[in-house]
Amino acid sequence: MKGGKNSLYDDLKRQILTMEFDPDQDLDEASLSEQYGLSRTPVREIFRRLEGEGYIDIRANRGARVSPMNHQTLRHFFLVAPMIYAAIGRLAVQNFKPKQLVDLKETQDRFRSASTSGDALAMVLENNRFHEIIGEMSFNAYLQPSLGRLLIDHARIGHTFFRPKNDDMRERLELAVEHHDGFIEAIARHDEDTVVDLVFEHWELSRENMEMFIAPQGMKADALVEVPLASMEKSS
């Protein structure tokens, strides 16, 4: 039973981050119970845990669904993401533990290997874990939940970044890998300013690819992005 619950939790997170489950997709409690050999009660426990982390919504009398991505949520994402990432970066420099830096380096090794082999799903997951570790380094009970929620949508919006379709996108991906190395080096030498500079460089690198993902969905990407990005540029 315990193994089934852990597998369900891990699998749902992975499938949401990699877009195997679409935003707003309903989750079938009965089929998941059967698939993982669980009764309804532990499945609902997992749903509640994932809801608290921002992966799903639970609606009264309508069941669970993958957290949606609509105009409002995306606008909020673009507005606050760089500010949260910068604050997390500064605190990570101040508070990280040596073991966390080792974990960050190992995650970067896996991310680099995935980028070399072109394994897009592994890149999504290892990139997400890389930034999760930086959040853990911050040891801040207020910012970490905000970062976790941002990373869910960052992974979903930016999944096209890890499937480059031309030379420019491939160069951007290579630069993203180099940025990760830069984060590790700057954190190791307690260089807050370099970490923050890298945050904004790293954000700008993936922003255009995020817009490419949003626009085909019929959303007003220009209205969604212009004001938040103007605010970000002023802050940088």
Q: Can you lay out the helices and strands and say which pair or pack?
A:
Layout lengths: L1 H16 L8 E2 L1 H8 L3 H14 L2 E4 L3 E4 L4 H25 L2 H20 L2 H19 L4 H15 L9 H22 L3 H23 L6 H15 L1
Antiparallel strand pairs: 1-3, 2-3
Structural key phrases:
disordered C terminus; Arc Repressor Mutant, subunit A; mainly alpha; Four Helix Bundle (Hemerythrin (Met), subunit A); globular; 236 residues; 2 domains
What do you see in this structure?
It is a single chain. The protein is mostly helical and 236 residues long. It has two domains: 5-66, Orthogonal Bundle (Arc Repressor Mutant, subunit A), CATH 1.10.10; 71-211, GntR ligand-binding domain-like (Four Helix Bundle (Hemerythrin (Met), subunit A), Up-down Bundle), CATH 1.20.120.530. Helix content is 75%, strand content 4%. It is built from ten helices and three strands. The chain has helices spanning 2-17, 29-36, 40-53, 71-95, 98-117, 120-138, 143-157, 167-188, 192-214, 221-235; strands at 26-27, 56-59, 63-66. Helix 1 (2-17) packs across helix 3 and helix 4 (71-95) crosses helix 6. Keywords: DNA-binding, Transcription, Transcription regulation. Residues 2-69 form the HTH gntR-type domain.
Mean pLDDT: 88
Helix content: over 70%
What ranges have pLDDT less than 50 throughout 5 or more consecutive residues? 216-236
Quick one: CATH class of the largest domain?
Mainly Alpha
Overall geometric form = globular
Distance between the termini: 49 Å
CATH topology heading of the largest domain: Four Helix Bundle (Hemerythrin (Met), subunit A)
**Number of DSSP-assigned strands:** 3
Quote the beta fraction: under 5%
Major beta-sheet overview? 3 strands, antiparallel
Number of helices: 10
* Rg from alpha-carbon coordinates: 18 Å
Derived from helix and strand composition plus strand pairing, the structural class reads: mainly alpha
From N to C, what is the helix and strand string? HEHHEEHHHHHHH
With strands numbered from the N-terminus, the spatial order across the biggest sheet is: 1-3-2
Per CATH, which architecture of the largest domain? Up-down Bundle
CATH superfamily of the largest domain: GntR ligand-binding domain-like
Q: How many domains?
A: 2
